[in-house]
Amino acid sequence: MFTGLVSDVGRVVSIEDRGELKRIRIATAYAPESIALGASIACGGPCLTAVATGREGGQAWFEVDAAAETLARTTVGRWRVGAKVNTERSLKIGDELGGHIVTGHVDGVARLVARKDFDGMARFDIRAPEALARFIAEKGSVCLDGTSLTVNSVNGAEFSILLIPHTLAVTTWGERVVGDELNIEVDLMARYAARLVEARA
After folding, report:
1. Which residues are catalytic?
2. Element holding 142 (H helix, E strand)
3. How many angstroms from the chain centroid is the CA of residue 87?
4. Fold match, 8-89 / 108-200
5. CA 11 from chain center: how many Å?
6. Which of 17, 38, 102, 103 would disulfide-bridge 4, Cβ 3.0–4.6 Å?
């Protein structure tokens, strides 16, 4: 379980193909001794399992395995060495829930269709997959590339978000350009509410 509040921007330093699985090493500011093997870390949105940790040349790193399902449903399969990745450690009892409840179970891939920068901020227009559009509501929450964000407006399958200078500076959002793909996780409450309505019908 996560909050969508990014705590570090990691960098992909190696990718090893292992059949239908990819072993990915991510450079991090997290102390490797603080990462237990088997721990969950949200990496660009998907919840991945730490399978190795260490240091090399003074740089800490952890490794994760991305299996076929993750590679098919997210942008992870298109990561390249050097890519920057929003990361978040799993929530602990007593931690501040400053974002919203995020599972790290990505629902699909959205696309950035417009960006407008002004006064140090930026407005992004995002196109969600058609099947997910019904879960996105004005002033509701959405998780994009592991970042908890508030939906400003909705128009069909497109919606907008507004990011303040701090968020642009401490996440990968400052480098986002039109055409970029984004891992999207819709709000958990919206998903269950829709399922309840379907069941009653």
Report:
1. 2, 40, 47, 49, 67, 105, 150
2. strand 141-144
3. 8
4. yes
5. 14
6. 102
∠ CA 97-194-43, rounded to 5°: 40
Domain boundaries, the chain: 8-89, 108-200
Please list, in sequence order, all residues whose beta carbon lies within 8 angstroms of the beta carbon of residue 180, skipping any fewer than 6 positions away: 111, 112
Whether the pLDDT of residue 97 is over 80: the answer is no
Please indicate whether residue 194 or residue 39 has the higher confidence score (pLDDT).
Answer: 39
**3-class DSSP state for residue 48?**
strand
Sheet holding 181-186, edge to edge: 147-150, 141-144, 181-186, 108-118, 121-127, 158-163, 153-155
The label of the residue with tokens 């509040």 reads 5
Q: Spelled out in words, what is the top-level CATH class assigned to the domain 108-200? A: mainly beta
What fold does the segment set 8-89 form as a domain? Elongation Factor Tu (Ef-tu); domain 3 (2.40.30)
15 burial level (CB within 10 Å; 0-12, 13-18, 19+): middle
